[in-house]
Amino acid sequence: MLGSAVTRVEDRRLVTGQGRFLDDLGADALAAAFVRSPHAHALVLDVDASDSVDVEGLVAVYTWEDLPGRAAQPIPVSLPHPGLIAPRTGYALANGEVNHLGEPVVMVVARDRYIAEDAAERIRVTYEPLAPVVGIEAARHAETRVHDDVPDNVAGVIRQECGDVDAALAAAPHVLDLNLDIERSMAAPLEGRGVLARVGEDGRLVIHTSTQVPHAVRAVVAHLLGLADADVDVVTPDIGGAFGLKGVRPWPEEILVPLAARLLRQPVKWVEDRRENFIASAQERAQRQHVRVGFDDTGRVLGYDIDICHDIGAYSQYGLVVSQNTSSHLLGPYAVPAKRATVTALYTNLVMVAPYRGAGRPEAVFAVERMMDRVADHLGMDRAAVREVNLIPTDQLPYGHGFRGQDGREVVYDSGDYAGALKALKDLVDWDDFEGLRAAARREGRTVGIGLAAYVENTGLGPYEGARVHLAPNGRVSVATGITSQGQGHETVLAQVVASELGVALGDVDVTTGDTRGIRYGVGTYASRGAVVAGSAVARAARKIKERALQLAADALEADPDDLELVDGVVRVKGTPSVALPLRTVAALSNPLRYSFDEEARNASRFARALAEDQPPLADEAAPGLESLAFHSPVRSTFANGIHAVVVETDPRTAEIRILRYCVVHDCGRVINPLIVEGQIHGGVAQGVGGSLYERMAYDQDGQLLNASFMDFLMPYATEVPPHIEIDHLESPSPLNPLGVKGAGEAGVIPAAAAIASAIEDAEGFRIEAMPLSPDGLFRLRQLFAAGEIEPLRRERR
């Protein structure tokens, strides 16, 4: 089954309307709504709810003063980091101060959402507005503060260095400086966040929430509400997209809704509306980058110093994960002897930053790949040739880069063929023949350009993931794992792993994800880790079952386990397929009951009676049944890699940017399901196009979001996404897990901005230093170029 382009088993249920999303649940629940701050920065002087009490159907109103115990404390930092020198987090409900637009101040619970919203509108909150800090420049100058006790607005600093950077730059024949900029964007999932909580008759708290990390939510909510983990169940229903946004642990609403359910002894539900998603959910990107690079006449980079300021919003609840990811990905597939990276995380009065598909990596690739293009331009060299000079040779892998990654360990590239990937891309996009296409387009009055960008991405992040696999006497296999699925096809991929290991039909495997009742310990879905870590755990668990099944069958058939094989749901003797046992019979045999209730149990009883007189029915230290719990804990991340090329056409009058071709060469190790991998790449490229050409959060100087709806926030339609993405797969199996796989979920988005900027620059003939770039932005750049305020490209070949 591994390597087969199997269509997704979950699709029939989802496309026929049988999915169960958060808002499909809790028809009997009370509804919550929130009064949210209309200011980016203000003191909360008074909350007057007196006018709301007359609303029929109102059940409760909560402010910070009503929160008990730990629920009234600041939300914990979920991922501490040694570079986080001034951690600051918010409260579930504002405690005297709000620090971003949309911060929750009051929670209202009523019979239904309409009543809850009506009551919320009647609550009068008195604010004293304070000067907000909006944008990186405002934060850097620190004329105003986000938090009074953080005078420089610096949340943390990550510094990494390898080699003598100052000496390398001083000795380099050529030195260039670049100033780059990437703006804020957002995940905008089809389904917003949501929480449903109820207390069962046994007192257990059951939380349904659209999260990527159910076990983490269980742990922190139990802690904040004074409960034991064992008294809380967290269940993730179907999720309509997450992209990192739902990996925050926990959101204020994930504390407040369960708290209300416990206090009221009734189920309570909240589902985020679209405006709340715009103004109150996490965002990402937002970096100013300064790159100083030294290189020789051949284009070989001798050293670089990259200094980045990162807007992380008002709170550092998620630690410095995104900043760390940027820092540790400023390496690319290149062997640079001396390198330094400094990322300064700055507080602003905007919503907090949390991972959004790519999670700091697109920004890093933008810096490094724009640097490579600038080196090529300065020397008049082909852009692909400059990259080729700097690539890490395959015979040097595994390759230690000297920097440390998100897991705190040294970045060590495990496997890959970077030169092979570049060659494959050049062939795929017809790189060497592009000048002929450019000339033909010019004769037609059209302007086209080509760009490329390479990347290496850490995937399969630890610390672990687990899987429980059970083979039932009816022949069906059930799998439970701690990861969640938001459209990645986990049910199919994990079923393929089990089917391959146990020799059963794909349709006989049932996969459950994101339910703490199915497996006690889990980590979750993020950082392209599903197939790598959970898939490896599933493989380990299935192999344990296979080993015991072969031993049981060997005893029953009086054969050597090494002479047996599992094929099509049957254990049979190699070369003598007629000597066999159905796997379901072996499953029944593994549980030596003293009675039979079906044909398989009767068959198992027959074999059980054949055992020696002094042999116990259940072997020492064996458990009844064919069930196994296994965990995979990777020693370090795997590293996927790839390279993208894009051909664009820029309209000479309207400045519209149209993508003519988009080509991807991708290496995620062993490919379990090429159809799903290609789907992941397609989705990532679509988001990369959006982040490159359309999507930006437009805040004014007061911290008000000016485009907080899909009427104003530009997203690419199907007409703007390349209709055909050309993909070539390379496979460099990873030695770090039993499947040899690497992650693929974020690959499509990571190099997109850098590749598209390279292509637009190539078409227009002047430098592109900021993304996203919309048609009006390109129009303004053309005006500046005509006025001599933007430097032209130096190379003859554009």
From TrEMBL:
The protein's name in its UniProt record: CO or xanthine dehydrogenase, Mo-binding subunit
Gene3D superfamilies assigned to the protein according to its UniProt record, in alphabetical order: Aldehyde oxidase/xanthine dehydrogenase, a/b hammerhead (3.90.1170.50), Aldehyde oxidase/xanthine dehydrogenase, molybdopterin binding domain (3.30.365.10)
Domain of life, source organism: Bacteria
Keywords: Molybdenum, Oxidoreductase
Domain named Aldehyde oxidase/xanthine dehydrogenase a/b hammerhead: residues: 16-131
Transmembrane segments: none
PANTHER family assigned to the protein according to its UniProt record, in alphabetical order: ALDEHYDE OXIDASE 1-RELATED, XANTHINE DEHYDROGENASE
